[in-house]
Protein backbone atom coordinates (compact mmCIF):
# COMPACT_ATOMS: atom_id res chain seq x y z
CA UNK A 1 0.00 0.00 0.00
CA UNK A 2 1.09 3.55 -0.64
CA UNK A 3 2.52 5.98 -1.15
CA UNK A 4 1.16 8.12 1.65
CA UNK A 5 3.06 10.79 3.57
CA UNK A 6 4.81 9.61 6.72
CA UNK A 7 6.75 11.63 9.30
CA UNK A 8 8.29 8.68 11.13
CA UNK A 9 11.26 6.97 9.49
CA UNK A 10 10.10 8.41 6.13
CA UNK A 11 8.36 5.10 5.43
CA UNK A 12 5.62 5.79 2.91
CA UNK A 13 4.63 2.24 1.96
CA UNK A 14 3.26 -0.81 3.74
CA UNK A 15 3.97 -4.40 2.71
CA UNK A 16 1.08 -6.60 3.83
CA UNK A 17 1.75 -10.34 4.08
CA UNK A 18 -0.96 -12.85 4.96
CA UNK A 19 -0.93 -16.60 5.57
CA UNK A 20 -3.90 -17.94 3.61
CA UNK A 21 -4.66 -20.75 6.08
CA UNK A 22 -4.64 -18.88 9.39
CA UNK A 23 -5.04 -15.31 8.05
CA UNK A 24 -2.09 -14.32 10.20
CA UNK A 25 -1.11 -10.93 8.84
CA UNK A 26 2.07 -8.89 9.00
CA UNK A 27 2.47 -5.22 8.07
CA UNK A 28 5.96 -3.93 7.36
CA UNK A 29 6.59 -0.19 6.75
CA UNK A 30 8.84 0.41 3.73
CA UNK A 31 10.85 3.35 2.45
CA UNK A 32 9.97 2.33 -1.11
CA UNK A 33 8.61 -0.61 -3.09
CA UNK A 34 12.10 -1.91 -3.81
CA UNK A 35 12.40 -3.12 -0.23
CA UNK A 36 9.35 -5.39 -0.52
CA UNK A 37 11.18 -8.47 -1.82
CA UNK A 38 13.85 -8.25 0.90
CA UNK A 39 11.26 -7.99 3.66
CA UNK A 40 9.25 -10.84 2.15
CA UNK A 41 12.35 -13.06 2.17
CA UNK A 42 12.99 -12.20 5.81
CA UNK A 43 9.41 -12.97 6.74
CA UNK A 44 9.47 -16.35 4.98
CA UNK A 45 12.62 -17.38 6.85
CA UNK A 46 11.26 -16.09 10.16
CA UNK A 47 7.91 -17.83 9.66
CA UNK A 48 9.49 -21.19 8.85
CA UNK A 49 12.04 -20.98 11.67
CA UNK A 50 9.57 -19.95 14.38
CA UNK A 51 6.57 -22.10 13.43
CA UNK A 52 8.18 -25.18 11.88
CA UNK A 53 5.80 -24.88 8.93
CA UNK A 54 7.06 -24.87 5.35
CA UNK A 55 5.97 -22.15 2.96
CA UNK A 56 4.88 -24.00 -0.18
CA UNK A 57 3.81 -21.09 -2.39
CA UNK A 58 3.86 -17.31 -2.47
CA UNK A 59 1.35 -15.26 -4.44
CA UNK A 60 2.19 -11.66 -5.27
CA UNK A 61 0.84 -9.05 -7.61
CA UNK A 62 2.57 -8.32 -10.91
CA UNK A 63 4.59 -5.45 -9.51
CA UNK A 64 8.15 -5.13 -10.76
CA UNK A 65 9.40 -5.17 -7.16
CA UNK A 66 8.73 -8.94 -7.06
CA UNK A 67 10.20 -9.72 -10.48
CA UNK A 68 13.81 -10.09 -9.50
CA UNK A 69 16.43 -12.75 -10.29
CA UNK A 70 17.79 -12.83 -6.74
CA UNK A 71 14.30 -13.14 -5.26
CA UNK A 72 13.37 -15.92 -7.68
CA UNK A 73 16.59 -17.76 -6.85
CA UNK A 74 15.78 -17.53 -3.14
CA UNK A 75 12.33 -19.04 -3.69
CA UNK A 76 13.76 -21.79 -5.88
CA UNK A 77 16.36 -22.82 -3.29
CA UNK A 78 13.59 -23.08 -0.68
CA UNK A 79 11.31 -25.06 -2.99
CA UNK A 80 8.68 -22.31 -2.95
CA UNK A 81 6.39 -21.79 -5.94
CA UNK A 82 5.94 -18.17 -7.01
CA UNK A 83 2.44 -17.39 -8.26
CA UNK A 84 1.34 -14.07 -9.74
CA UNK A 85 -2.22 -12.84 -9.46
CA UNK A 86 -3.81 -12.14 -12.82
CA UNK A 87 -4.70 -8.47 -13.42
CA UNK A 88 -8.43 -7.66 -13.08
CA UNK A 89 -9.15 -11.14 -11.61
CA UNK A 90 -10.00 -9.77 -8.20
CA UNK A 91 -11.08 -13.10 -6.73
CA UNK A 92 -7.45 -14.26 -6.78
CA UNK A 93 -6.35 -11.70 -4.23
CA UNK A 94 -9.72 -10.92 -2.69
CA UNK A 95 -8.74 -11.95 0.85
CA UNK A 96 -5.71 -9.68 1.06
CA UNK A 97 -7.66 -6.77 -0.44
CA UNK A 98 -10.43 -7.30 2.11
CA UNK A 99 -7.81 -7.45 4.86
CA UNK A 100 -6.16 -4.23 3.66
CA UNK A 101 -9.52 -2.47 3.56
CA UNK A 102 -10.53 -3.73 7.01
CA UNK A 103 -7.25 -2.77 8.64
CA UNK A 104 -7.20 0.61 6.87
CA UNK A 105 -10.62 1.40 8.33
CA UNK A 106 -9.43 0.35 11.79
CA UNK A 107 -6.35 2.56 11.45
CA UNK A 108 -8.33 5.55 10.21
CA UNK A 109 -10.73 5.28 13.14
CA UNK A 110 -7.89 5.14 15.68
CA UNK A 111 -6.10 8.12 14.14
CA UNK A 112 -9.28 10.17 14.24
CA UNK A 113 -9.98 9.16 17.84
CA UNK A 114 -6.48 10.23 18.90
CA UNK A 115 -6.67 13.36 16.71
CA UNK A 116 -3.32 12.51 15.12
CA UNK A 117 -2.40 13.34 11.51
CA UNK A 118 -2.66 10.78 8.72
CA UNK A 119 1.10 10.98 8.33
CA UNK A 120 1.32 8.47 11.20
CA UNK A 121 -0.66 5.88 9.23
CA UNK A 122 2.13 3.24 8.77
CA UNK A 123 2.45 2.78 12.52
CA UNK A 124 -1.26 2.82 13.23
CA UNK A 125 -1.64 0.26 10.43
CA UNK A 126 0.82 -2.05 12.21
CA UNK A 127 -1.04 -1.50 15.48
CA UNK A 128 -4.33 -2.45 13.79
CA UNK A 129 -2.72 -5.58 12.32
CA UNK A 130 -1.70 -6.66 15.82
CA UNK A 131 -5.34 -6.34 16.90
CA UNK A 132 -6.49 -8.13 13.72
CA UNK A 133 -4.32 -11.15 14.55
CA UNK A 134 -5.85 -11.35 18.03
CA UNK A 135 -9.44 -11.29 16.73
CA UNK A 136 -11.76 -14.07 15.54
CA UNK A 137 -12.77 -13.96 11.88
CA UNK A 138 -15.40 -15.66 9.72
CA UNK A 139 -14.86 -19.40 9.11
CA UNK A 140 -12.17 -19.54 11.80
CA UNK A 141 -12.71 -21.08 15.25
CA UNK A 142 -9.47 -19.61 16.57
CA UNK A 143 -7.66 -16.31 16.14
CA UNK A 144 -4.81 -16.15 13.59
CA UNK A 145 -2.37 -15.73 16.47
CA UNK A 146 -3.62 -18.89 18.16
CA UNK A 147 -3.61 -20.98 14.97
CA UNK A 148 0.02 -20.21 14.24
CA UNK A 149 1.37 -19.65 17.75
CA UNK A 150 -0.50 -22.58 19.34
CA UNK A 151 -1.60 -20.45 22.31
CA UNK A 152 -4.28 -17.86 22.94
CA UNK A 153 -3.22 -14.24 22.44
CA UNK A 154 -2.77 -11.99 25.45
CA UNK A 155 -4.32 -8.55 25.28
CA UNK A 156 -2.53 -7.32 28.40
CA UNK A 157 -0.31 -5.05 26.30
CA UNK A 158 -3.13 -3.49 24.29
CA UNK A 159 -3.22 0.29 24.69
CA UNK A 160 -5.00 3.06 22.79
CA UNK A 161 -2.96 4.29 19.85
CA UNK A 162 -1.76 7.85 20.33
CA UNK A 163 -2.22 7.86 24.10
CA UNK A 164 0.44 9.55 26.19
CA UNK A 165 3.32 7.47 27.50
CA UNK A 166 5.74 8.36 30.26
CA UNK A 167 9.16 6.73 30.27
CA UNK A 168 11.87 7.15 32.89
CA UNK A 169 14.67 9.36 31.59
CA UNK A 170 17.86 7.31 31.97
CA UNK A 171 19.89 10.44 31.17
CA UNK A 172 18.26 12.25 34.07
CA UNK A 173 20.34 14.98 35.69
CA UNK A 174 18.95 16.61 38.82
CA UNK A 175 19.97 20.08 37.82
CA UNK A 176 18.50 20.39 34.33
CA UNK A 177 16.62 17.26 33.20
CA UNK A 178 13.12 15.95 33.72
CA UNK A 179 12.72 12.56 35.34
CA UNK A 180 10.27 11.44 32.66
CA UNK A 181 10.26 11.47 28.88
CA UNK A 182 6.83 12.06 27.34
CA UNK A 183 5.77 10.51 24.07
CA UNK A 184 2.77 9.01 22.34
CA UNK A 185 1.97 5.34 21.88
CA UNK A 186 2.75 3.69 18.52
CA UNK A 187 1.89 0.09 19.34
CA UNK A 188 3.42 -3.13 20.61
CA UNK A 189 7.03 -4.00 19.81
CA UNK A 190 6.63 -7.21 17.85
CA UNK A 191 10.13 -8.59 18.34
CA UNK A 192 10.29 -8.16 22.12
CA UNK A 193 8.06 -7.61 25.13
CA UNK A 194 7.64 -3.86 25.13
CA UNK A 195 5.98 -0.87 23.52
CA UNK A 196 6.90 1.58 20.80
CA UNK A 197 6.45 5.29 21.29
CA UNK A 198 7.54 8.54 19.70
CA UNK A 199 9.27 11.26 21.70
CA UNK A 200 7.98 14.58 20.42
CA UNK A 201 10.90 16.67 21.68
CA UNK A 202 13.45 14.54 19.82
CA UNK A 203 11.41 13.15 16.94
CA UNK A 204 12.71 9.67 17.76
CA UNK A 205 11.16 6.25 18.15
CA UNK A 206 11.87 4.57 21.48
CA UNK A 207 11.26 1.06 22.78
CA UNK A 208 10.64 0.33 26.44
CA UNK A 209 8.92 -2.09 28.81
CA UNK A 210 8.51 -0.01 31.98
CA UNK A 211 6.11 2.65 30.75
CA UNK A 212 3.20 4.53 32.32
CA UNK A 213 0.16 5.25 30.15
CA UNK A 214 -2.50 7.92 30.23
CA UNK A 215 -5.08 6.57 27.77
CA UNK A 216 -7.52 9.34 28.65
CA UNK A 217 -5.12 11.96 27.26
CA UNK A 218 -4.17 12.49 23.61
CA UNK A 219 -1.97 14.97 21.80
CA UNK A 220 -4.79 17.11 20.48
CA UNK A 221 -3.15 20.24 21.89
CA UNK A 222 0.24 19.18 20.53
CA UNK A 223 -0.84 18.69 16.92
CA UNK A 224 1.06 21.84 15.94
CA UNK A 225 4.24 20.37 17.45
CA UNK A 226 3.82 17.21 15.39
CA UNK A 227 3.41 19.24 12.21
CA UNK A 228 6.44 21.33 13.18
CA UNK A 229 8.57 18.20 13.47
CA UNK A 230 7.32 17.10 10.08
CA UNK A 231 8.41 20.40 8.55
CA UNK A 232 11.83 20.22 10.23
CA UNK A 233 12.28 16.66 8.94
CA UNK A 234 13.75 15.38 12.19
CA UNK A 235 12.53 11.81 11.99
CA UNK A 236 15.47 9.65 11.06
CA UNK A 237 14.62 6.45 12.98
UniProtKB/TrEMBL annotation:
Q: Which GO terms describe its biological process?
A: DNA integration; DNA recombination; transposition
Q: Which Pfam families match?
A: SH3_retrovirus (PF25597)
* Coiled coil ranges: none
Record bears the keyword Nuclease: yes
Q: Which PROSITE patterns match?
A: INTEGRASE
Residue ranges spanning the membrane: these are none
What domain of life is recorded for the organism?
Answer: Eukaryota
- Tell me which residues make up the Integrase catalytic domain: 1-152
Q: Which GO terms describe its cellular component?
A: nucleus
One GO molecular-function entry: metal ion binding
Q: What reactions does this protein catalyze?
A: DNA(n) + a 2'-deoxyribonucleoside 5'-triphosphate = DNA(n+1) + diphosphate
Check the record and name the Gene3D superfamilies matching this protein.
Ribonuclease H-like superfamily/Ribonuclease H
Family matches, as InterPro entries: Integrase_cat-core, Retrotran_Ty1/copia-like, RNaseH-like_sf, RNaseH_sf, SH3_retrovirus
For this protein, the record's SUPFAM superfamilies field holds: Ribonuclease H-like
Write out the entry's keywords from A to Z: DNA integration, DNA recombination, DNA-directed DNA polymerase, Endonuclease, Hydrolase, Magnesium, Metal-binding, Nuclease, Nucleotidyltransferase, RNA-binding, RNA-directed DNA polymerase, Transferase, Transposition
Protein name stated in the entry: Integrase catalytic domain-containing protein
Q: Which organism is it from?
A: Austropuccinia psidii MF-1
